Amino acid sequence: MILDAIQPNLAMFIRPLRLVSSGWTGHVPFGAWLTAVQQPRILVELGSHFGMSYAAFCQTVQNEGLNTKCYAVDTWQGDEHAGFYGDSVYNDLAAFNDKHFAGFSRLMRMTFDEATTYFEDGSVDLLHIDGLHTYEAVKHDFESWLPKLSDRAIVLFHDTNMRERDFGVWQYWAEITKRYPGFEFDHSAGLGMLAVGPNQPAEVRKLLGLPKDQAGAKAVKEVFSSLGESTLRRWELENTLQELASKASDVKRVLAQLANVDTELSTLQKNHLRAAGLLEQYDRTVKETYARNEALSSELARCEAAHGRIETSLSWRITKPLRAARRMFKG
Question: What's the CATH fold of domain 2-245?
Fold first, then answer.
């Protein structure tokens, strides 16, 4: 059934080099399939954030050996839907891009409107719109870039199946598919593929020709949903492994700290024993000194008592004149 609906290729079984938190992870296999099939000359992404989708496009260009120039346009400051963030997000993606795709990929840190001045009319083959998701913003982005699209252009709209927090992509998708043929995936918040240019590859025309509610279209959706789920599971596994590695590092650090504490405790115990020994020796010395003092006090008392007895004795009184005379003669 699937072979009757689309022509599979190796690109759809991509193992992404970049796995980051993203609502686009489930669409990576289709994005890779489409890039390999369409072989765009210029690919532009509006709203790259962490770069999950953009890196997958670039990886496919590299794997397939395509002569494609890729451009990611974003302020990398965030918005009310993606949240706001600092320079670390851009710096991380820029480092990854320079390492893997520097030969054909450029990050353009500016607004979507500002970026239009850097592209000629009719030059963009594949445009991915994934910026602010309000109805007005998506409509503005599409209409602003419409003159830049080529006669074989395809436009991807992310979040066509999100109906909350003022998301309006679904509403604009319903309108725009009345003007251009499209195919929509429901999984991972929804992704719409819009064939704006009349000159599409046979594989894309075949996909667009599938009746929406019949088995062929359902089979295509199930295949790419399953492949996307596999990519999501791989990201979750990688994320879990990173968390485990981080926890292992934390445990190792805590064990090292405990070892230091044990060493310090052992030193304290030795110092305590040494202090206890010194204190015991001091107590012993004090007791010995006290005992000697007691003995000396007793001896002194005994001598004083003996001296008193001598001075009060009869012989001492009788010989008193003799002792006085002796002192006179000596003087």
Answer: Rossmann fold (3.40.50)
